[in-house]
Amino acid sequence: MASVTVRVPAKVNLQLAVGPVRDDGYHDLVNVFHAVSLFDEVTACEAAGPELTVRVEGESAGDVPTGPDNLAVRAAQALAERSGRSGGAELVIRKAIPVAGGMAGGSADAAGALVACNELWRLGLSFAELMEIGAGIGSDVPFALFGGTAVGTGRGERLTAVPASGTFHWVFALADGGLSTPAVYAECDRLRATGEAAPAELALSAPLAAALRDGDAKALGLALVNDLQPAALSLRPSLSRTLDAGRGAGALGAIVSGSGPTCAFLAESAAHAAEVAAAVETAGVCRSAVTASGPVRGATLAE
């Protein structure tokens, strides 16, 4: 039976500037995405009938929906509708990206399904067409296809590459359980309405762009910013201890990744990242800690 496997990276947000809520319920964003070497794998296999099915293995697999709410299934359905195809597929997702952890694991799986099914079904859709379909699935799906380092505007789906030199080394402290992205945005709106938080300027940070261009990890660590972090800490106060543990271990920068609850720490080198990960785990402030590096490519066919 024919099958196609695609490897898709997690992301960390280096800058997440959140504007006021729009009439459509979304927020305008300036979102600097950075793809890191923590990967899910999505395999699309031929199916005898027209159904689309999904099986999930690995990291927190039991927390991933396997029905119509699964983003990989929704992506494959959208691809089939776009191409006028009625044939089905079996999707197998091998998770390494934390579920509901603010690292766009579900969006990565959707991107993987788009690339895998486009190849399996021999549809020949272009990268631009897959990006368009992905944007209809979720705001983070296009970046999972795009990869590297990029700034997203609008809902985050309109992407422009950001020049970055060298390799940056990261530690990700994984939390027990997840945080609902809509709940974090709602808390962000509440904190702003009560004057406990203020919106940032919707513009790419010049110090952050310069640090990326120069490959300056120390400067990048100082420039990391996430407008959703106060909301994530409000909903999960224990994350403050996680951030403090990473800073205490010498991390160059510490930030909640996206809507959380994963916390990201920038390190000087791969060896330093291993030291920070060990210190954070020893402090008992997370379920586990993993190391990764970036930037890496977006959704890629596995060899």
Automatic annotation (TrEMBL):
The gene is ispE. Pathway: Isoprenoid biosynthesis; isopentenyl diphosphate biosynthesis via DXP pathway; isopentenyl diphosphate from 1-deoxy-D-xylulose 5-phosphate: step 3/6. InterPro entries: GHMP_kinase_C_dom, GHMP_kinase_C_sf, GHMP_kinase_N_dom, IspE, Ribosomal_Su5_D2-typ_SF, Ribsml_uS5_D2-typ_fold_subgr. Coiled coil: none annotated. Belongs to the GHMP kinase family. IspE subfamily. It is an enzyme of class 2 (transferase). NCBIfam families: ispE, PRK03188.1. It comes from Planotetraspora thailandica. Residues 70-148 form the GHMP kinase N-terminal domain. Residues 209-284 form the GHMP kinase C-terminal domain. It catalyses: 4-CDP-2-C-methyl-D-erythritol + ATP = 4-CDP-2-C-methyl-D-erythritol 2-phosphate + ADP + H(+). The lineage of its organism: Bacteria, Bacillati, Actinomycetota, Actinomycetes, Streptosporangiales. Gene3D superfamilies: 3.30.230.10, GHMP kinase, C-terminal domain. One of its GO terms (molecular function) is 4-(cytidine 5'-diphospho)-2-C-methyl-D-erythritol kinase activity. The keyword Membrane does not apply. The active site is at K11, D140. It holds the Pfam family GHMP_kinases_N. Keywords: ATP-binding, Isoprene biosynthesis, Kinase, Nucleotide-binding, Transferase. This is 4-diphosphocytidyl-2-C-methyl-D-erythritol kinase. Catalyzes the phosphorylation of the position 2 hydroxy group of 4-diphosphocytidyl-2C-methyl-D-erythritol. One of its GO terms (biological process) is isopentenyl diphosphate biosynthetic process, methylerythritol 4-phosphate pathway. Its EC number is 2.7.1.148. ATP binds at P98, V99, A100, G101, G102, M103, A104, G105, G106, S107, A108.
